[in-house]
Amino acid sequence: MLSERTITAALRLLNKSYLYTEPVDLPRLPGPREGHGYTLYAHVPFCERLCPYCSFNRFLYHEDRARTYFTHLRTEMRMVADMGYDFASLYIGGGTPTILIDELCETIDLARSLFPGIGEVSAETSPNHLTEKTILALKHRVQRLSVGVQSFDDMLLQQMARYDKYGCGQEVFETVKAAAGEFHSLNVDMIFNFPSQTMQMLEHDIELVRATGANQTTFYPLMASPKMRGELARTIGQIDYPREVEFYRTICEGLAPEFENSSAWTFSQEKGSMIDEYIVDHEEYLGIGSGALSFLDGRIYHNTFSLHDYERRITEGRMAVAKAGRPYSRIARMRYRFVTDLFGLRLDKDRFRRDFGVPIEVGLPAEMAFMHLSGGIASDDGHTLTLSDKGRYLLLVMMRETLASSNDIRDHERTLLPADEKMLLFDNQHPCEVVATAEECLAAS
Asked: What count of Cα atoms within 13 Å lies in the side-chain half-sphere of residue 310?
């Protein structure tokens, strides 16, 4: 598809600038601004086993190390509260946030006491953690629990190093099905367009998602960094981007009518449900924890990826921010608003004019012309833009390329870790080198 190739090429070029960061010496992130809404993201970078296709900041789990980390994470959370922040929602990602359920519960309880504005909490988990103990501990603390399934197909699970870890597809299916109805939103995270995935495999995955009884699912396209694209081509096969749109159409049709789009790649049975991409609700967010990302006042901030450096900074009374990007230009901020709003399926043209002083057609003439000419706009009544089916796919492509570029940054940051921490990126049970990302642990971002 020409429009997909155009967006892919443009985003791979633009994201090099938009996501670029360099070291900074900042004891604190910028404080909150009057009238702005914010989301809090907390990162827990530990897993019992390391998936070879995950690019997120994560290390092999050891209990003492993880408990110390949770203590520092709560200390950093108190620093944020002292700055005057409040948040509408809390997202906890990883890694595997449920790695120590008592520590996670204490962290959630502290967040709610420090930030009374938090109305909803979303957390990620893995199928092996979806136990009666975890459900009991979280069902009144977490409104949205997202389970990283990725596929129910045994061959794909083996290729993603998940079969030995979580069991066969049928075992994972039964685990998810048993948890349906326990949370306001139980989300099933899936991947599509894996090199060896066939249309039949995808259709079977869709059928099983529906049969679990979960009321939300997110189908992420494979988001591979340049390094991983080469690794996949060498070991399994090249990513087939031309067929991606056909897979996406099959997902939309296969989930309808019970599931409707909540974003370009999340499908819910209830309108207004929380989704993974928290930037849809609040374009500014603050990240705590090692490897977390913040976007404040039109500028990206990266926390240190090193556990040692994270502990040192928090112990010294500093926040974890280690790198920052250049302040976004006015047009960059307009483009950011364009993508985040439309990824959430609608753009408020009146709000755009109020915030930027010009109609969107004047501020972003090329972007608007492209969306109209490509058939991406379903309706434009002068106040609100909504997306057509093709438009939702084009926004999926935009987000796919942005997150793939983020994965490239994470790959690079791992190469800068001290030698002893690099050893924590190797799974003793799977001694192969842990390479970056076919988006198996997404969560984010």
From this structure: 28
